[in-house]
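Job type: complex structure
Entries:
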Amino acid sequence: EAGVTQSPTHLIKTRGQQATLRCSPISGHTSVYWYQQALGLGLQFLLWYDEGEERNRGNFPPRFSGRQFPNYSSELNVNALELEDSALYLCASVSTGGGDAGYTFGSGTRLTVV
Amino acid sequence: AQSVTQLGSHVSVSEGALVLLRCNYSSSVPPYLFWYVQYPNQGLQLLLKYTSAATLVKGINGFEAEFKKSETSFHLTKPSAHMSDAAEYFCAVSPGGTSYGKLTFGQGTILTVHP
């Protein structure tokens, strides 16, 4: 079974540009979570999508947005990039049933803003 | 609201020694608790989880954790450290239930293993 897939692995953008990060959940998982891991700031919750709807949002400005597609894959968009947006962005999908219930994380997208 | 406190941002042990990483949580509802490990430039790998079944949870790579409601703790232990255990460890809590909900992380503990 394929795990959570994130693309691209690395992304370098210039301040003011837009970045698009993608996440494919494990087959059968309908919930996707996004986290930001910036240096010295730990893992901060960004967004939660379930069944195509945004369910919860962390304390981030509106230029962080996303969506979930009918196949449950998700996209995170960051507009008007700032230097402090440089971070590892992690996506997780959730299974709520059976012995494997829990959150499975992808390997992340390393975003560097220069 | 939920929160997690990991006591000690850095822990150093000798190879073969006991590993103890401390985690205390706060939750207004019965929680689900998790320990994840992160190696440099990688994502998070699940070590073990507590989801209201047995309070002593065994995970991968010889790690285990005990849920103690009275102490609001979920400390991670391993009897004998190996060099390959050197990594950053995160404790996390979610509200549980049927939809799991938002996962809230502690600040992480960097484990160093000396030969």
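Summary: The longest strand of chain A covers residues 42-50. Chain A touches chain B through 23 residues (CB under 8 Å).
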